[in-house]
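[READ THE FOLD]
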Amino acid sequence: VAREALALAVQIGDEELIGVCHTWVGITLRQRGHADQALAHLREGVSRGSELAGLELSYSLIEQGELAESEQLARRALAHFDALGHQQAVSMAITCLAEISRRTGDLDENRRLHLRAIDLAGPGASRGALFGGLNYAVSLVVTHRDYDSARAVLESIRRRAAQRGLIRLEVGVSAAWLAAGAVEMDELAWATEISSLKELLARTGLNKPVVADCCEHAGQRCISTRPDRALQSFELAEAQWRGCRRVADADRVAAMRS
């Protein structure tokens, strides 16, 4: 539908509408895992003044490691949507900035921004806010090592993800839960969780840096006490890094297994 609308907008010659249509084609492609095609459409949207395209592009560029451009777009979107009073979009922009701060090592700013984003999202959290909550939980696991707090956040997100059928969100929650409970889970809970994650990955075909990060962290947590769990976690992490075309990261994790 979005592609048909884009073709019609091009035929009409309405530049603003063309930008909107490129944005939604890009969002759809991004959600389906077609990152390169999504980037091209989102850039077209940005070039025609779509702030929503800029916000979505900011998310995509984080995954590509282009943090400077991502931050610039997120701050511009934040100012735009804050002026409009659009709290959900503001929450999404703050979540982008929080993830950037995590990747640049500013841990205090990371925590502050994530808490602000969750507060803005409120009880009727949007899909974007739920993914923001997941990012916060991942930050608690990988960066802050606050596993109890992470599990509390993940429990709430997992319930809402299941209710709404947000399978991509469920993938991230499962990976983060694996990392948060790598040492603490009993045998049945571990077997159930890792089996669920493998099944979700097989169904979706997703390869995401955040999943790789969580699986790698799970392996590092239990490498000295539960080498069997570490091996399972590192296998998943390596596969995810390779799927993300992050060969150096995949080779690094592979070395941990040997």
Notes: The first helix runs from residue 2 to 12.
